[in-house]
Structures are given as C-alpha cells and as structure tokens.
Amino acid sequence: MDLALLDIALRGVATGGLSLLTVLFWTSRVHRYAVWAMTLLTVTTLARLWSSQAPPYILFTDGVGFLRLLAVFGAFSSTFFLLTIFLDGKRFAVLWLGSGVAISVATYFAPEFPTYIPLLRAYAALHFTALLTLILYSARGDLIEARRRVRPVVATILSAFFVYQAFFSRPNFGAATYTEAMMTILGITLCIAVVSLWVLTVNQDRWPGAIIRENLDAPTPLNVHSAQTALIAKINAAMANHIWRQESLTVADLALKVDAPEHRVRKAINQTLGHRNFASFINSARIEEAKKRLVDPADLDTTVLAIAYDVGFASLGPFNRAFRAEFGCTPTEYRRRSLADSEKDAPNLNTGR
Fold this sequence. Notes:
Layout: H1 3-26, H2 32-51, H3 64-71, H4 74-86, H5 93-109, H6 117-137, H7 145-168, H8 178-201, H9 226-240, H10 251-258, H11 262-271, H12 278-295, H13 304-310, H14 316-327, H15 331-350
Helix pairs in contact: 1-2, 1-8, 2-3, 2-4, 4-5, 4-6, 5-6, 6-7, 7-8, 9-11, 10-11, 12-15
C-alpha cells in the first residue's frame, strides 16, 4: 500500500472528525468560552496535524511554515480547553494560560536555541502533568456525572499524548521520520475519537461547559420523580440544620447524613438544585449566612476571620475569594459599605423622613 496515500487518508479522517466536532459545538447551546476553546484547539491541532508530515510525504510544502506557526500555540489551546471543560472555578486560570503561552512562545523560538529544548520539554511535561492532576483531584466535588466519569479516561490518554509530545517531538521542526509522523497522527486521532464519543453521549443540558441560559444557577427543568423530591427534601433539611458548617464537608459526608447513595446526591444537587460542583453548593449557604452576620448588630465586634471559621471555611483566603465571587467585594468591604449605608439612613429615620 502506498504510504503517502495512507498518511493523507489518516490525516483526512482526523481532520473531518475534528471539524465535525467543532461544528457541533457551534450549533449547540454551549457557552461561547467552550465554543472558542474547541475552535482554537481545532485550529492548532489541524495545523500540527498537517505540519508534522515527514519527508517525502509533505503535502503543503508552501504553507508548512505558517502551519507550524499556528501549531506552536497547541500548548495554549490545550490548556484553555482543559480549563474550560473540566474546571468550573477560575482561580489561577490566568497563571495556567500564561504558562501555556510561555510554552508556545518558547516552542516557536526553540530551533534558534536547541540547547534549551530539554528544559522546554521538561517544563511542558510538568505543566500538563500538574494540570491533569488538578483535573483528577477536582473530580471529588464534581456534580456533573458525565464529566466526572470521563476524567480518568481523558486524563490518561492526554497525559500519555502530552508526555510523548514533550519528550519525543521536535519543537517547530516537523517530523523527522515517517514513524514519528504516524505516532503523532495516531495520538491526535485517538484523542479526537475519545472526545467525540463523549460529546455525542452527553445530554446538552448536562454538558460540562457552561450552558447558555437566562440564569446559569437555575436548574434545568426536569420531571422530578417522587424519590428525587424526597431526597431533595432531606438535603434541604440537612442544609437547614447547618451541616454546611462542617469543615471539609464532602459529598460522601452529606450522602451519609441523608442516607442516600453518593451518586444520587450528586445528581440531585446538579440536576435539581442547579449546582455544577459541590463546593459552590456548600459555599452558597456559607456565604449567605456570613452576609447576614457581617451586618448583624450583635456581631459587629466579631472579626471577619471568626465569622469565616464559624460558617465552615478553613481560612480567610478561601472565604474572601468565595465572597468576592458572589458579591464582587471582600467581606470587609461589604461590612463597611453596609454600615455606611445604615448610618446614612439613620438621620432620616430619626426625623421621620
């Protein structure tokens, strides 16, 4: 069989599959961040795909330089995609993306500084290993079952592919041998196949990326059966009894409290109460209680740190971040503004105006 035809055929299949997957994103109700993440990943992946051909099978000889320029941003696009799909919290997202950009820029200049390529390989491997470890670690609080189940599979495949690319690919040089070129295309095709199968089996309303709807915190309408209703009542009762005050509370702890399987508790909180991860569900109750106490006259002498501990936060940093995400300011700023507004209203109340 003609190896050139086999090479082009495999790349054509991968190109078609990835293009169809991107079209699916554009025609769905997936949030624009997920759409752009998928689009950018497609562009850089296809550029890598067609610029990694080995002589004498290079098809686009005139445009290979431009394709390699696009391909070097694969580290950034892969990081952006993984952050968008698997991580709801945006903490440190800028640092992750900045690291991806740094790898991409270094890859572009790698041919001019070949002695630094081993350092680039090591850093790229460390970057993606750390990111994929974070993806696996964050599965503990993930309430989207379709995403939670696929994390180990995606992490394993992507880890193998990225580590191979980091240690065995030739940054911005293209493939040196036909074997190297085929390893690249087979790795890309396998990743495309896994993501495609996952996307096609996930209900749009349960899609890991944010769904466009009027209220992102509102649950997607479902026909909730009686058993689900009873479970929700138990969960709400546990929350009303302040189980959220328990430090380091997990889904397993809550499931034990309401005497229900953990997977049912995850499903109920996600599909009926509208939360995408357990941390946001628990923190919403903690922040609401903290908001009340910050302006309660009986707690004016209570420090913000003491309130944070009392509502279940382990330290002030996570409390400040969660509060700012909810209200756009720190707890101290919220208390100061609320007290200032109360003092402004006091004279009007005293004079009857």
